[in-house]
Write a structure and sequence with these properties.
- By secondary structure, the protein is mainly alpha-helical.
- It contains 13 helices and no strands.
- The longest helix has 39 residues, at 180-218.
Length: 311
């Protein structure tokens, strides 16, 4: 019986149900204001589109090289009947983890910043809009002597972020001049260190966009440079939580993978899905800490207490 039902009916039912949820849900006012904010400040969605698009181009150009022009045939999109769809039983095991990590991105880091993180590293080193100076002042004021150590780690990760595109570009040529194992060790180390800046840059982007929304909600006028520097000052408070996430993620996920390039680690990839589940569970368990540090609290302890009250 269900096979004879036109496909448009389930689609109409889905759209009608979604419309009812949106129209009668108390959160609709916040969603409406969010949509109005996005239309007012297009940089909010353009930023995510630019970063996500740049990473997609990098992924396609690096791992899906075109052998001939016929490989890029857009007419195939118009013929879905010819697509080879996998069965549900073939893919369901691969679905939960990416879906969970997609939800985690809302509370952690919403987008991948590579390869534009290399450009951001150059701009930061050249003190674009005074951000380098604002970062130094914020670290010195917030962390005192510890700020020097944090700044050194950030600077090393910035340099690694600059080297990472060069490594990807020259890796085939170096493979013939240097032992393959040595090349992989160097490139994996640079990638692991560059991840620190890439992650923190993504967190700063979120802090900046949140401050844009906050200024709109409060009806404040602002200059671009001032808002960038204000976001950097608030980022110094978020850095406590972001640094904790970086440390835990490095120890749980990245360190075992990096160690496998230097010595034999049996079945290191078999534990990767479990490690990613643990990281996702940690971030969801403390989902409000980052936004609390952006908008309200000035210490990690206060953010944890606010999160406990929120829960």
């Amino acid at each position: 019986m269900w096979l004879n039902v036109p496909r448009v009916y389930p689609l109409l039912g889905l759209c009608s149900g979604y419309a009812l949820v949106m129209l009668f849900n108390p959160i609709r006012l916040a969603l409406r204001d969010g949509f109005r904010c996005i239309t007012r400040f297009k940089r909010i969605w353009l930023t995510f589109t630019l970063l996500g698009g740049a990473y997609s181009v990098f992924q396609f150009a690096t791992f899906t090289p075109l052998q001939q022009s016929s490989d890029l045939d857009f007419t195939q999109i118009l013929a879905p009947a010819s697509w080879a769809w996998p069965g549900f039983l073939e893919v369901w095991r691969e679905v939960p983890l990416p879906a969970l990590e997609g939800v985690v991105g809302i509370f952690d880091n919403a987008t991948t910043t590579y390869p534009l993180s290399a450009l951001a590293a150059v701009l930061l080193l050249f003190n674009w809009r005074g951000l380098h100076g604002a970062l130094l002042r914020a670290l010195r004021k917030r962390y005192r002597l510890w700020g020097v150590a944090i700044y050194v780690v950030l600077l090393i990760s910035v340099l690694a972020a600059l080297l990472k595109p060069i490594i990807f570009w020259r890796l085939p040529e170096w493979g013939g001049a240097v032992p393959a194992a040595r090349v992989l060790q160097i490139s994996a180390t640079i990638d692991a260190v560059a991840f620190i800046f890439e992650y923190l840059f993504g967190v700063y982007i979120q802090v900046y966009l949140i401050t844009v929304c906050l200024a709109w909600v409060k009806g404040l006028s602002f200059h671009e440079g001032d808002l960038f520097r204000f976001a950097m000052r608030r980022f110094s408070y978020v850095l406590e939580w972001a640094g904790l996430v970086v440390i835990v993620g490095t120890l749980i996920v990245r360190a075992p993978l990096l160690l496998a390039y230097f010595r034999d680690v049996p079945d290191v990839l078999d534990y990767l899905p479990l490690e990613r589940f643990v990281m996702s569970g940690l971030i969801i368990a403390f989902c409000s800490v980052q936004i609390s540090l952006v908008l309200h609290n000035e210490s990690l302890g206060a953010a944890f207490r606010a999160h406990r009250e929120f829960v």
